[in-house]
Amino acid sequence: MRARLLVAAFAALTLACSDSGGPNDNEPSRPPSELNILRLSDTSPPLLNPVVSFYAVRGEDSEARIFFDNGQGGQGEEYLRLKLDDASLLTYPDGTEFVEGDSVLITIRVVDPAQTLFELEPSGLKFSPDDPAELKIRYQEVDDDLNGDGDVDVDDLELELTLAIWRQESPGDPFVRLGTVLLDDIDEVETTLEGFSRYALAY
Are 46 and 69 in contact (CB under 8 A)? Predict the structure, then answer.
């Protein structure tokens, strides 16, 4: 059933691409009031670690992940993953370049446990454009009724095909859409980051 709906949604989306008022209207930025940030389902498990911190070191690979609780106080399904390669770190927030062995404390925070909205710190940290950080968000626990109309139907699957990761420099600023890879078969989106701020999974 889901496969048939996805085919129908893809066909509808293809037709909508020529409509500037459609869901895929290529708007590069939107004010917060016009962005639809995905909501977690009422039945989703609680988060195991809504805040995670780790030291990233120039010259070493590192990563951090946020998980859902498995119902027994342990690690359940993955929600978010941030991955840095050994050459990802470029400059500190004050502009000082990293050299081999330099480290920085990175914190990832879920801004609202009901929404796919995250804050990454320290603000101003820069990554190499040749070897950027990688951000992955799993949305398997998101409410399938994406448009909130009370039904899960082809309209929601059409919206799923337009999902992207959006960046907000500071609270209240417009959101800017990032180039995003959508892997709808595993309910995951991926993008690369050259700096830190707020990020949302939205349409």
Answer: yes
32-35 LR contacts (CB < 8 Å, sep 24+)? 32/168, 32/172, 32/173, 32/174, 32/175, 35/166, 35/175, 35/200, 35/202
More confident residue, 47 or 2: 47
* Whether pTM exceeds 0.90: no
How many structural domains does the chain have? Answer: 1
Q: Which domain holds residue 47?
A: 31-151+163-202
**Position 21 in a domain:** no
Q: For residue 84, what is the domain's CATH number?
A: 2.60.220
Are 12 and 157 in contact by the 8 Å Cβ rule? The answer is no
Peptide bond into 122 cis (omega under 30): yes
What phi and psi, each to the nearest 5 degrees, are found at residue 8?
-65, -40
Residue 167 lies in a domain: yes
